[in-house]
Hints:
The chain has 261 residues and is an alpha/beta fold. The protein contains nine helices and seven strands, in the order ααβαβαββαβααβααβ. The protein has helices spanning 8-17, 21-34, 51-60, 73-82, 121-131, 155-165, 175-184, 207-219, 227-243, and strands at 41-45, 65-70, 89-93, 106-112, 132-150, 187-199, 248-259. A seven-stranded mixed sheet has the order 3-2-1-4-5-7-6, with helices on both faces. Helix 8 (207-219) runs antiparallel to helix 9. The longest helix is centred in the C-terminal third of the chain and has 17 residues, at 227-243. The protein is globular and about 55 Å long.
Amino acid sequence: xxxxxxxxxxxxxxxxxxxxxxxxxxxxxxxxxxxxxxxxxxxxxxxxxxxxxxxxxxxxxxxxxxxxxxxxxxxxxxxxxxxxxxxxxxxxxxxxxxxxxxxxxxxxxxxxxxxxxxxxxxxxxxxxxxxxxxxxxxxxxxxxxxxxxxxxxxxxxxxxxxxxxxxxxxxxxxxxxxxxxxxxxxxxxxxxxxxxxxxxxxxxxxxxxxxxxxxxxxxxxxxxxxxxxxxxxxxxxxxxxxxxxxxxxxxxxxxxxxxxx
Length: 261
């Protein structure tokens, strides 16, 4: 598995990417599903650059607390800066499969586009189940990358690029099995909602448009895709955008569940 390395460069890139229109919409949908209330304690598992932590702090207020967990020191450095001055924010460097927090401490847990990268999904779900109080709420959000529909004048090249891009994930189609895994971990009231993210412009404000430079960098040199091939793929997408012919679509899934009382 040749996954991406979440170093300072990628942390900075994702910090910019997550400001885009589609990412703002995704955070709104995930926060609505979580339903944070004043005074609650919330854990963000795989918090990345800290956007959710900062926004949830406003919802829980001074009587609540939001804790972000991430294995990447570079990501946590960005998150810590984002939440500077908030005494009720906490960050811990840890593998998401071994959460260093007490049992039954949190009212709600959030995990957005993290589990698709994790080899042992069951361990992470078990950990989130452990740290939630009885009746505590869980929101897990991941992409089913098999749902991607992407316009190209060279379908064979597009297929190779997307197949290679899948290699940065442990589970490219995790949502297809996630409901069963949540139930196996002891969660109940498992629900799923699919949200379409479609774009007809190659703008970095859109989810599809923001992926172009990430994919170009990742696939170059893999599976027989040269740097020139990758550049040509990305150039075609930008030209389609300039010509008004760009199209990208995928479905992202929001799962909700609760720990039994």
